[in-house]
Write a structure and sequence with these properties.
The protein is an alpha+beta fold. The chain has helices at residues 4-14, 18-27, 32-41, 44-49, 79-82, 85-99, 106-110, 119-130, 171-184, 196-212, 217-235, 250-256, 280-289; strands at residues 57-65, 68-76, 113-114, 117-118, 134-143, 148-155, 160-168, 241-242, 245-249, 259-268. Helix 1 crosses helix 2 (18-27). The relative contact order is 0.11.
């Protein structure tokens, strides 16, 4: 038998997760060396050691089946791996598997079965095979009604993907809206979605700008209302000038085509991930000298 300390020691030695370490010790009847080999053979130890690396490249993807659609993002360390056929096959499998499910959380998604084991097992084995950190970062499963249409658009081979849902109208209009979202990157659908603290922060900046221009405090206060409307037009999809016809707002464009925008999701590879800045020449030299 083995103890909790044995699990802890194996985890420290291999960097594998607690449950994987426990399973390895179960399988090897507590033999530490055999458990290390077990994890290495499964590719788990190798994958775990890469967890500290930064994976900010990769791909996004969208799949639709009837009234269900899924948008996913899978990251890699390098753009080179993102172009690898094995990597592309993985992200397609992830999207197809989730689309057939009702998964709501990442844990539920990772435990879905594929032809290569669970999504998590498939991921671990892919990391071991490719030799680079790969991260299944996020997904969203969306369902629509029969009176709604999906707008799907992928840019730069999956660098950016957008999924919109529009009530009424048609898929061409919905796709145009998704193309606009890809290009203009609105933060919110409408004013109601903008958090109160964001508005207050922006108002504070606008007031400070007006006072720096020499305006009295009371005049600066009045200027806030006008300038905050300009802010809404920059960050809210419905109020943005439509890229294909800047004389129209996006809301007006859709309304003129008999529709209403219900939702939008925009994934851009690596957004929000702090990318490590490295000098390639220095990295090569460090490996030679090491």
């Amino acid at each position: 038998m083995f103890t909790a300390n044995d699990v802890k020691a194996l985890r420290e030695k291999t960097g594998a997760g607690m449950l994987d370490c426990k399973k390895a010790l179960d399988e090897t009847k507590g033999d530490m060396d055999a458990a290390v080999d077990y994890l290495r053979e499964k590719g788990i130890a190798k994958a775990a050691k890469k967890e500290s690396r930064i994976a900010a490249e990769g791909l996004t993807d969208i799949l639709v089946d009837g009234n269900k659609a899924v948008i996913v993002e899978v990251n890699s360390e390098t753009d080179f791996v993102a172009k690898n056929e094995e990597f592309k096959k993985f992200i397609t499998t992830v999207a197809e598997t989730i689309l057939k499910s009702n998964a709501k959380t990442m844990d539920e998604a990772l435990n879905l079965q594929t032809d290569n084991g669970t999504i998590n097992e498939y991921l671990v084995n892919l990391v071991a095979k490719i030799g680079e950190k790969i991260s299944f970062r996020r997904f969203e499963l969306v369902e629509k009604t029969d009176s709604e249409v999906f707008g799907c658009y992928s840019h730069m081979g999956g660098r950016i993907s957008v999924l919109t849902v529009i009530e009424g109208s048609n898929e061409d209009v919905a796709r145009d809206v998704s193309m606009h979202v890809a290009a203009m990157n609105p933060s919110y659908l409408n004013r109601d979605e903008v958090p109160a603290e964001v508005i207050e922060h922006e108002k504070g900046i606008i007031k400070e700008q007006a006072m720096n221009e020499g305006k009295p405090a009371d005049i600066a206060e009045k200027m806030v209302a006008g300038r905050i409307n300009k802010f809404y037009k920059e960050v809210c999809l419905l109020e943005q000038a439509f890229v294909k016809d800047p004389d129209l707002s996006v809301e007006a464009f859709v309304k003129n085509n008999g529709g209403t925008i219900k939702s939008m999701i925009r994934y851009e590879v690596g957004e929000g991930i702090e990318k490590r800045q490295e000098n390639f020449a220095d990295e090569v030299m460090s490996q030679i000298n090491g």
